[in-house]
Amino acid sequence: MRTINQNYIDGRFVPVQGTDLRPLFNPATEEQIATVHLSNAADVDAAVRAAVAAYAEISTMSNSKRVAMLHRLSDVVSRRSADLAEAMSEEYGAPAPFVEASASRAGQVFLDMAQTVEAYPWQRQIGSALVEMRPVGVAAAVTPWNSNLGFICSKLATAIAAGTSIVIKPSEMSAWQTQVLAEALDEAELPNGVYNIINGTGALAGDALTRHRDIAKITFTGSTATGRAILRAASETMKRVTLELGGKGAQIVLDDADLDAAAAQVLANGFINSGQACIAGTRILVPEHKLTTMQERLVAGLANWPVGPGNDPASRIGPMVSAKQWERVQSYIALGPQEGARILAGGEGRPDGLNSGWFVKPTLFGEVDNSMRIAREEIFGPVLCVLPYRGEDDAISIANDTDYGLQNYVIGTDPERCRRIASQLQSGRVVINGAKHEPHAPFGGFKQSGIGREYGSFGLEAFLEPRSVLG
Predict the structure, then answer these.
(1) pLDDT along the chain (471 residues), means of 10
(2) Which residues have CB under 8 Å from 252's CB, separation 6+?
(3) Cβ neighbourhood burial of 49 (10 Å; 0-12, 13-18, 19+)
(4) How far apart are CA 140 and CA 48, in angstroms?
(5) Rounded alpha-carbon distances, angstroms, from residue 466 to 69, 119, 134, 394, 460
(6) Are residues 277 and 354 in the same domain?
(7) Could you tell me if residue 437 is inside a domain?
(8) Rounded Cα distance, 157 and 154, in Å
(9) What sections of 187-290 are H helices per DSSP?
(10) Which of 87, 103, 122, 280 is most buried per CB count within 10 Å?
């Protein structure tokens, strides 16, 4: 069994000073696969000191040198994509297509940001003033477990692009993936201290980073509750903050949609990353007069979403990441009928034939009111709610009646009508008819889904400050 007892600080792997330990499990088997040593405040201080020392060099480095660094990072991560996929599959358990796409995407995000940097206007003349875009200062990133490789790489890419050194604290539940990725990143031979990676809990290491006087910028992806705590702590020293938080996305199925195609699309949007995705479309809004037919299509469509371990090529929904997450999802499945909803498919417990592993039956609720907790709270599992609507205005009202505003979906046959409805939805992104991800477009949420944006020039500017020079 593995022991993960090193952080990556100042260009080398160093022993973790903290003495707390945490087991890591394969979620498909519930077997322990590793033990991770957790960082303490001294580890955080060491990582921040290294980043502070490196800031002088990277903040004055030429654009071309930073672009070259991004290309080197892409090369070394891409070369290890098979190793990264293997670690992710074992530690996270996601189905093979998601794992393979995640491992491949990890190297690509550096090239996407390199393109952004090369085209970005670092200086602008505004009247008599020269406006220069300058790096914000030493940054810290706190990332979640549901797409560990991508979150680390995208935040690191943005920091390098901006000329900012960074300390990254991934989820301690993803420590094996982080170890393999850190070994790959080390091969890029970046200047010491430009990036530093520490294993630790959010309650200790994450909090220490958020409050550290030498950190100027926090970028966080995770729950809304944790985002609020980070925002409060960061305000004490006026740190710049980017928060990408939870979601409760609506999928509006219009009355002109082909229901067979729409049902397939709805399930794909709802079961992204086995439902463990902030962008999942978990509220399915259907015209009232087509509700019964659509529900029948959705129930039938579940046959195309088999549950199983990631190493089973047939699997499309993997296990929940932990026993705690499995229990959380089960509690919401039990809550639905208590609130008056009806289980159309799925329900409590593991799927038939899976007696171990943190697997959940894909569950579809009908007779749901938007005031129910299952329709308002982020469940983070393969649990979907079907809600009827009467006309476009009602659909838009229901979709917007949420504390969240990350990503919504519109499905229909008239592109102009779809865009008109999309323009009225209160979310940072709206996906029409399964459109592909655009890596240079901004990503982030309205309302309690976050503050700020990531990706492309919008994400880059979150790590920059404008300085006006007059005269």
Answers:
(1) 96 98 98 98 98 98 98 98 97 96 97 98 97 98 97 98 98 98 98 98 96 98 96 96 98 98 98 98 98 98 97 96 98 98 98 96 98 98 98 98 98 98 98 97 98 98 98 89
(2) 285, 389, 395, 396, 399, 408, 409, 410, 411, 421
(3) middle
(4) 9
(5) 24, 17, 6, 43, 12
(6) yes
(7) no
(8) 5
(9) 207-211, 224-235, 259-270
(10) 280
Contact between 204 and 39 under an 8 Å Cβ cutoff? The reply is: yes
Q: In the chain, what is the greatest distance between 2 CA atoms, to the nearest angstrom? A: 75
Region for residue 456 given its phi and psi (left: phi exceeds 0; alpha: psi -120 to 50; beta: otherwise): left
Structure tokens at 177: 């993936």
Q: How far apart are CA 100 and CA 82, in angstroms?
A: 8
Q: What is the DSSP string of 377-405?
A: S---SSEEEEEEESHHHHHHHHHH-SS--
Same domain, 193 and 270: no
CA distance 257 to 409: 13
394: tokens are 């009602």
pTM of the full structure: 0.97
| Contact of 131 with 467, CB cutoff 8 Å | yes
Does 217 share its domain with 262?
no
Q: Which of 172, 244, 378, 461 is flagged as catalytic?
A: 244
Residue 118 burial (CB count, 10 A): 13
Please confirm, yes or no, whether 339 is among the known catalytic residues.
no
Sequence-separated (6 or more) residues with CB below 8 Å from residue 137: 55, 164, 215, 216, 217
Examine the residue annotation and report whether 153 is marked as an active-site residue of this protein. Answer: no
Residue 439 lies in a domain: no
Which residue in 90, 91, 153, 278 is the catalytic one?
A: 278
Rounded Cα distance between 114 and 99, Å, is: 24
Q: Is residue 442 part of a domain?
A: no
Look-up of token digits 């899976």: 354
Distance CA 390, CA 97 (A): 37
